[in-house]
Amino acid sequence: MQHEITLFDDEVENLIKKHQTRPEHQGYIKLDGITLPEEFRQFVNTIDNFEVRDDDIWVCSFPRTGTTWTQEMVWCIANDLDFERAKVLLNDRFPYLEITAMMGTPKPSDHRHIPDIKMPEHVIDSIGFCEKLPSPRFIKTHLPFSLLPRQLKRGEKSAKIVYVARNPKDVCISYFHHGKVPHGFKGSFEDWCDLFIKDAVMYAPFWKHVLGYWKQRINNNFLFIKYEDMKRDLPSVIKRTAKFLGKNLTTDQLSILTEHLSFDSMKVNPAVNNEELTAALQKFNPSEEREEFIRRGTTEQWKTEMSPEIIKRFDDWTQENLRGTYFHF
Ligand code: A3P
Fold it and tell me: Closest Cα partner for 241 from 259, 260, 255, 224?
């Protein structure tokens, strides 16, 4: 399949180069209109041709929308609340398809190679890792619908997809905190918001991502959920997800799982809180204050963190992008 590569205009290109200090996050390209590190070009065809299996379960999302939360919910439901096996790191149980392309594989000759960081297998060759997983596989991706493996996009397999969305202002805030360490982002929060609205952060455009999946909602193998609904009424979202996955939970199981997925339990659960990854990534950026992966876990953070001018920019941009759709948060 042919993919179109375009470059940013000079203004945005300069902003990226100025603020992103890790080398692989300075050379962003637009691949079919999606902002991705240049290294992604080497992976795009392999992902197109990735063999999907009928019993795969995929969790897809824009970064920082509650992906980890959704993955743990889906995995636990699909595995009949097997909390013993859930002690295995989520990244091994539910790997991130394209992480190798996003982080760059460190090689001994590479400027990014740091001798005391031992990259796990699911990072060194994430696609190969996913290919080798036994069925049923659980796979996470942040790719937009348009860049999913061909068999998944075309519905050639009965694999299931769960997509989680979150309002863009809170996503932007969460992504800013998360982006400092792995992307080496050194600009201000306002600079970050500017790049976010200009569709120049990884996996942007945000709205194209959400709406691309939203269009799939009529498909029986597809479930669209929202972070805000999980916050408001987690048991209801668990029940919807269980129904979608063909599982029945007893009242007791529902309350045990709700507790397991609470912010307080997930924050201290080493299988899901990504503390190892955060610590490893920090070695790339030792001067940066460490941010927890499971950080605040609240809605409407934008009300206290964003200036009225930025809120207005976001609202105008949202209105423009949602014109003609019924989508809302
Ligand atoms: P904040 O940075 O706003 O706290 P992702 O997994 O897609 O990277 O999303 C990360 C966001 O989900 C973070 O948001 C994180 O705190 C939040 N999150 C993770 N687990 C959660 C939970 N159990 N309850 C509420 N929010 C959770």
Answer: 224
**Is 111 one of the catalytic residues?**
no
| Overall residue count recorded for the chain in this entry | 329
pTM for the model stands at: 0.94
Amino acid in the structure at residue 79 = N
Q: What residues does each domain of the chain span?
A: 5-322
The domain 5-322 having CATH identifier 3.20.20.30: the answer here is: no
From the candidates 19, 122, 142, 209, which is the catalytic residue? Answer: 142
Measuring CA to CA, how many Å separate 246 from each of 84, 110, 220? 22, 46, 12
Residue identifier of the C-alpha nearest atom 2 of ligand 1: 174
Two tokens at 120?
């796990």
Q: What are the tens digits of pLDDT across the range 68-122?
A: 999 999 999 999 999 999 999 999 999 999 999 987 655 544 545 555 667 788 9
Rounded to the nearest 5°, which phi and psi values hold at 217? -65, -20
